[in-house]
């Protein structure tokens, strides 16, 4: 994504913006927030996203309107009052783990790319507790959600990019296409 968005204006002077599905996590209830703070809430499930708001904002962008995109705080697991103003653009790059999951949203895209880059857990942590927490999250939420929800959306992609961001040939072809 970084290579695709590194220039705000490409060689044809088109305006480009990027959005992340991470901005559209739902506002959590008190109970959900308590579970999230303990690492027991599944942020990798389709129900974790506010798809109504996401659809509304994408629709407005497609219609050439200026929008305010929410800001999500991963430390407090809440939406911040601050928003990001997104102006009309010729190209909108929208990235996220489940962007193709909902048909209503998927149908808004002109080109669907699936970066096939899910790799086994390979993180480093600074303490046993951190590593333990990350492994619990991975085993209980990340890997099962990838297999159940994300992987099945691969069939909706126009282009599947093996090796994800490490496949510079494919990335450069996409950059030229855009």
UniProtKB/TrEMBL annotation:
Residues 15-169 form the Phosphoribulokinase/uridine kinase domain. SUPFAM superfamilies: P-loop containing nucleoside triphosphate hydrolases. Its EC number is 2.7.1.48. Pfam families: PRK (PF00485). Keywords: Kinase, Nucleotide-binding, Transferase. CDD domains: UMPK (cd02023). This is uridine/cytidine kinase.
């Amino acid at each position: 994504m970084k290579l695709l968005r590194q220039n705000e204006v490409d060689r044809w002077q088109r305006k480009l913006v990027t959005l992340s599905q991470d901005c559209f996590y739902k506002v959590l209830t008190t109970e959900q927030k308590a579970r999230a703070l303990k690492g027991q809430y599944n942020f990798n499930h389709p129900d974790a996203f506010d798809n109504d708001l996401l659809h509304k904002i994408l629709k407005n962008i497609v219609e050439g309107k200026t929008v305010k995109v929410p800001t999500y705080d991963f430390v407090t697991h809440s939406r911040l009052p601050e928003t990001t103003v997104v102006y009309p653009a010729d190209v909108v790059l929208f990235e996220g783990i489940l962007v193709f999951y909902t048909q209503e949203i998927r149908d808004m895209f002109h080109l669907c790319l699936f970066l096939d880059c899910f790799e086994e857990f390979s993180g480093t942590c600074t303490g046993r507790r951190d590593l333990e927490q990350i492994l619990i999250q991975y085993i209980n939420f990340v890997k099962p959600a990838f297999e159940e929800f994300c992987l099945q959306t691969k069939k909706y992609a126009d282009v599947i990019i093996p090796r994800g961001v490490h496949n510079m040939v494919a990335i450069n072809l996409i950059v030229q296409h855009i």
